[in-house]
Amino acid sequence: MTAAARAERLVNLVLCLLSSRQYLPAERIRRTVPGYADAPSDEAFFRMFERDKAELRELGVPLETGRIPGFEAGDGYRIARRDYELPDIDLEPDEAAAVALAARLWDSPQLSGAANGALLKLRAAGVEVDTEPSVLVQPRVRATEPALTPLISAVQAGQVVTFSHRRHPAEQPAARILEPWGVVSWRGRWYVVGHDRDRDAVRCFRVSRIVGPVRAVGASGAVQRPLGVDLLKIVAGSAEPPAATHTARLWLAHGRAYGLRRRATVLDTMTVQDVSGDVVAVELPGYDVAARWIAGLGPDAVVLEPTELATAVRARLLAAAGSAG
């Protein structure tokens, strides 16, 4: 209660000194600010007042001292608004958009309070931040994984974490001991990056595949992120390995299949069943993905080679024809 009363007295003192354009004498402050009237003697009041002034100055409050015209009892005190108030905060349009997106991104109950508090402070400083759905750019990442908040807390505290993680949804979870360096998003997913103690190597783990609680162990400050480490580069290089590609030779009808044409190199022209088109070479992902893509183009695309891809496309087209009756 003593600490709370002292904090309340300091706030009241600041408000009192801010509200006056003139220097206020100590006796008037004693009568005006709640808390000082409880001092049992003049000496106790002045000791209390001196402590409060020193604390305000330590907190960076610009407390001024000056003479009061026509007043012989000594100095007076005030806080000049020009020195106390924050300067105007100007955000460029892209910076304001980033703030709004960040606030909308942290939509989990654990993190939304901090985001809303930051927005309130910006608005109090006169910065207008639009958080309505009309914002042209929409965040694709959601902070809904239960493991995200304890991981971020552990990174900030510099603590080791333990958790169970599945490398694949069909696999059993395995225990991990990680020195976390940071949490980043990559292609719509969250990853935690750090040093895996069991494997003595740098590893990244998809947060959505963490099973059960994340526990922080050991002392705070035990984990330090190495200088020059690019967390996003680590995730991009290991979390999502590049898919294998295959070179295919296709026939594409003229004026059609523009999605494939953007990736293709025209080799020749050719007519298929009285329809003119181009023979192209194109790098495509695995046959399963490429077969779905090409089959969706219907008669506008024909696989010339390889045979495996042509067979996969034909099977999908036959299945579609059978489903259509």
Query: H/E series, N to C?
Result: HEHHEEHHHHEEEEEHEHEEHEH
What's the CATH architecture of the largest domain?
Roll
Globular, elongated, flat, extended or rod-shaped: what is the shape?
A: elongated
Q: Numbering strands along the chain, what is their spatial order in the largest sheet?
A: 7-6-5-4-8
The number of helical segments is 11
How would you characterize the largest beta sheet? 5 strands, antiparallel
Domain count: the total is: 4
How confident overall, as mean pLDDT? 79
Regions with pLDDT < 50 over 5+ consecutive residues?
A: 129-140
CATH fold-level topology of the largest domain:
SH3 type barrels
C-alpha Rg (nearest Å): 33 Å
Write up what this structure looks like.
The protein is an alpha+beta fold and 325 residues long. It has four domains: 2-84, Arc Repressor Mutant, subunit A; 88-142, no CATH class; 148-238, SH3 type barrels (Roll), CATH 2.30.30; 246-323, no CATH class. Helices cover 38% and strands 26% of the residues. It has eleven helices and twelve strands. Strands 7-6-5-4-8 form a five-stranded antiparallel β-sheet. Strands 10-11-9-12 form a four-stranded antiparallel β-sheet. Strand 5 and strand 6 form a beta hairpin. Helix 10 (287-295) crosses helix 11 (307-323). The model is unreliable at 129-140 (pLDDT under 50).
